[in-house]
Design a protein that fits this description.
This is Putative sulfotransferase. The chain is mainly alpha-helical. Helix content is 51%, strand content 5%.
């Protein structure tokens, strides 16, 4: 999976870990993963990708308001030299970078031609930050019942900028999103939890300014991570705000934005500086649950990039990532003087509307009877676990629950998060 890191011995793998390491792809994809000439067809080279994005969009200016050359070069080099991507992995990674670069070119073109876009600010967003399995998706989709809130559906998160103007109806980006979801469901059916029209995360809009942890979900990135974790991402978050201004001009909907991503946990400084009138919601749950869930998701999704994913390496990577996010949140919350709302998973699950009322009180806006009705009709049919849950053991990822609890002791104590049974 990563060059120079030996895979664990078969005897050290659980039955589930063996299944992760030896995925059974549909036959056409299995054959495609061995395609020759992948390096030539889908280069992971910064100059080649920028040139291809320019040809694809017929635009040239990437702008200079957010980082580009240094992170792109580091990212391409580590993906090309350290990650043992199969042909489909090179294709999907090449495409992901190309999408980010193409969207950035389109944003800069719109900004140049239509400066009036930036006359309307991004005001009072609600931003949800929390680990996987802590209730962030449920809470975001619940709040999105409010027609006064503007979220980013999957198809728009994938391609934040329109392909061309005038925008056709239906927007061709919707069809592009549907194609991506169809491929995911074919290749990795257990990841079938996204919907084209459902609110999603702003990882791709952040990726345009290379201030996104999106790339870490593809693979551990030893050559890129030191730059990412030591860089002040204030410029990248300002670029996100710029993207949101373009998006709300293209498709007006709602009075305020509803955003959500786990990466915000380590970016409270840039986040609050960019959105000083925002309301910030941090969800809390035993991080052991999150580590096991994200390790399983990444191990399963890695079949799209690697012949033999390493669930033990992924487990270590996810543990390090989770600790990094949580330590940053503890550090930066101590400095914060903004409006934060803490939401514990058990409280959210027991009484979702009580949580919603607390959030609306923090925003200083009214929760209308009609909005409350829309939410109370929606949430009983969408509670977590209604369609079953996946169960994973720490041993599947070479981890130990007691060791994880020790690493996260600072977080349990700081936020009063209860330990759950495993």
């Amino acid at each position: 999976m990563l060059k120079g890191i030996p895979r664990p011995r078969r005897a050290d793998l659980t039955e589930r870990a063996l299944a992760f390491q030896n995925p059974r792809l549909p036959i056409p994809l299995r054959l495609a993963a061995w395609l020759p000439f992948a390096r030539m067809w889908w280069p992971l080279d910064a100059s080649a990708l920028k040139a291809k994005a320019r040809r694809r969009t017929r635009l040239t200016d990437f702008g200079a308001l957010a980082p580009l050359d240094v992170p792109l070069e580091l990212l391409c080099r580590t993906l090309d030299e350290d990650a043992e991507l199969h042909a489909l992995g090179r294709l999907s990674t090449h495409y992901a970078l190309l999408v980010a670069l193409s969207n950035r070119l389109r944003l800069e073109d719109l900004a140049r031609r239509r400066p009036q876009i930036f006359e309307r600010p991004v005001t009072g967003p609600i931003v949800i930050a929390g680990l996987q399995r802590s209730g962030t998706t449920f809470l975001q989709r619940l709040l999105a019942r409010d027609p006064g809130l503007r979220s980013i559906p999957f198809w728009e998160a994938l391609n934040p900028m329109p392909f061309a103007e005038p925008i056709q109806a239906p927007d061709p980006r919707m069809k592009a999103g549907a194609r991506v979801l169809k491929f995911i469901r074919w290749n990795a059916p257990e990841m079938d939890d996204r919907r084209n029209e459902a609110p999603d995360e702003e990882l791709v809009p952040l990726a345009m300014g290379f201030s996104s942890m999106f790339f870490e979900t593809i693979s551990p990135l030893p050559g890129y991570l030191p730059w990412y974790v030591t860089t002040d991402h204030t410029a990248g978050y300002a670029y996100l705000r710029r993207a949101l201004q373009v998006m709300q001009w293209i498709r007006p909907a709602g009075e305020r934005w509803l955003l959500k991503s786990p990466q915000h946990l380590e970016q409270f400084g840039p986040l609050t500086a960019t959105f000083p009138d925002g309301t910030f919601v941090q969800t809390h749950r035993d991080p052991v649950r999150s580590v096991l869930s994200l390790s399983a998701t990444m191990s399963y999704a890695s079949r799209q990039n690697y012949h033999h994913p390493d669930p033990h390496l992924i487990g270590r990577h996810v543990t390090d990532l989770t600790e990094r996010l949580l330590r940053a949140s503890v550090r930066d919350r101590a400095r914060a003087d903004r409006r934060f709302v803490d939401v514990h998973f058990a409280q959210l699950n027991a009484d979702p509307m009580a949580t919603v009322r607390r959030i609306y009180a923090a925003t200083g806006t009214e929760l209308t009877e009609e909005t409350e009705r829309l939410m109370t009709v929606w949430y009983p049919r969408h509670r977590r676990g209604r369609h079953g849950v996946h169960s994973y053991e720490a041993a599947d990822f070479g981890l130990s629950v007691p060791a994880l609890r020790e690493r996260f002791a600072f977080y349990y104590d700081h936020f009063g998060v209860p330990r759950e049974g495993h």
